[in-house]
Amino acid sequence: MFNNLIESNSHVREYKRRGSFLLFTGATYVVFFVITGVVSIYAYDARLEDQTEQWVVQLLPPQPVPDREPAAAARPERSRETSRNDREIDMRSDPMLSVNHPEHPPEGVSVAPNTNPPVPDGRPWTPGEHDFIASPASGGGPVGPGNGRQVAQPATVVNLPDTPPPPDPPKPPPIVSKGVITSQATYLPKPVYSEIAKRLRIQGTVSVQVLVDEQGRVVSAKAVSGSSFLIPEAQKAALQARFSPTLLSGQPVKVSGVITYNFVLGN
Questions:
Q1: Can you tell me the distance from the alpha carbon of 232 to that of 192, in angstroms, rounded to the nearest whole number?
Q2: Other residues' Cβ atoms within 10 Å of the Cβ of residue 239
Q3: CA 20 to 30 Å from 241, out of 12, 83, 234, 265?
Q4: Least confident of 39-53, 102-116, 196-210
Q5: Could you tell me if 204 and 179 are in contact, meaning their C-beta atoms sit under 8 angstroms apart?
Q6: What is the rounded CA–CA span in Å between residue 208 and residue 231?
Q7: pLDDT tens for each residue of 179-198
């Protein structure tokens, strides 16, 4: 019994020793972490003295401002009443020389009549807002329709000649139609007698309508009568024929005629 008591007391001391060790170790770690945190706070250098409160603002480049057009200077209004001296001087709104000065031709040419009076020769004049012709007899007055002071000449109507019609297209030369022109050929080859026509003993006359150009060459040949076994060879022979050029009023023309071929079997 006493042995068990002694043994239990030894276990209690062992537990106390382990607990003290754990408590001491935990306290040591806590103190270490606290010291590390304090040291890191004091060791941190935020360099607050280098920081400033200046703000960086990015500005867009200045946009070009279009130049304002200067306001048109107000033209001084001219009094409607003209003095006696003004009535003795001509006024022109658009000064231009008369036709008596060919050394100064106008800048442009137009078919419309010019209604502006020319600058007077030998009399004083001044530029103004309207045209005015001074006249000692009537006192002068502005130039306008209905007061007998228009200088512009009436427009002249010029009748242009009508455009000539286009020339007629050249007409094709006429075709002279003839009858049988077999004897007029300068070269007339004989047609070939086909073997099938010989075996069938087919014979007879074949008429071929031909068209001869201005140089005397046959440009087309078409049979108008004869056996179908003899027509192909007759047309081939007609295309090889040649004729002398036919003249009409000194000009060569085309000729249409017929060439006949006689197919006869020998004994």
A1: 9
A2: 14
A3: 265
A4: 39-53
A5: no
A6: 8
A7: 999 999 999 999 999 999 99
**What is the tens place of the pLDDT at every residue in 127-150?**
877 777 776 544 444 444 444 344
Return the exposure string of 77-92: e unless at least 16 CB atoms fall within 10 Å of the residue's CB, then b: eeeeebeeebbebbbb
The CATH homologous superfamily to which domain 175-263 belongs is TonB (3.30.2420.10)
Q: What is the 3-state secondary structure (H, E, C) of 139-181?
A: CCEECCCCCCCCCCCCCCCCCCCCCCCCCCCCCCCCEEEEEEC
Domain boundaries, the chain: 1-34, 175-263
Give the tokens for residue 29: 């770690």
Q: Give Cα separations from 231 to 22, 42, 218 (angstroms).
A: 136, 129, 17
Q: Give the count of alpha carbons within 13 A of 121, CB side only.
A: 5
Backbone angles phi, psi at 199, to 5 degrees: -65, -35
pTM above 0.85, yes or no: no
Which helix (DSSP H) or strand (DSSP E) does residue 43 occupy?
helix 2-43
Q: Which amino acid is at 38?
A: V
Are 102 and 82 in contact, with CB atoms under 8 Å apart? no
